[in-house]
Design goal:
The relative contact order is 0.32. Helix content is 0%, strand content 56%. Strands 2, 4, 5, 6, 9, 10 and 11 form a seven-stranded mixed beta sheet that branches. A four-stranded antiparallel beta sheet has the order 1-3-8-7, with no helix packed on it. By secondary structure, the chain is mostly beta strands. The chain is built from no helices and eleven strands.
């Protein structure tokens, strides 16, 4: 079975940093595009950042310059380094992995990030 396990969420003050990790198993990690989504209460889930199998990254405008996504294929793990956090970053953050074959998305269970003002 595919399993995605997130870690690193928590409570920080505005301006602080967190690093989220997502360890994957049950997939051929290196061939997958992957990333992070977030969802605040009453809001739609939105893409935060992604990285392709070739290392191309994409970020939501709201986090550009503050967040960095990376991946370690040897460890089957992706990361989201979150700097200069703002209260509006408060949300549940979900790890996502897109397997190209079969074409399917896998999701972690989510990790809470809370940024206090």
């Amino acid at each position: 079975q595919v399993r995605l396990v997130e870690s690193g969420g928590g409570l920080v003050q505005a301006g602080g940093s967190l690093r989220l990790s997502c360890a994957a198993s049950g997939i051929i990690f290196r061939r997958c595009t992957m990333g992070w989504y977030r969802q605040a209460p009453g809001e739609q889930r939105e893409l935060v950042a992604l990285v392709t199998s070739g290392g191309v990254t994409n970020y939501a405008d709201s986090v550009k310059g503050r967040f960095t996504i990376s991946r370690d294929n040897a460890k089957n793990t992706q990361y989201l380094q979150m700097n200069s956090l703002k209260p509006e970053d408060t949300a549940v953050y979900y790890c996502n992995v897109k397997d190209p074959w079969p074409k399917v998305d896998y999701w972690g269970r989510g990790t809470q990030v809370t940024v206090s003002s």
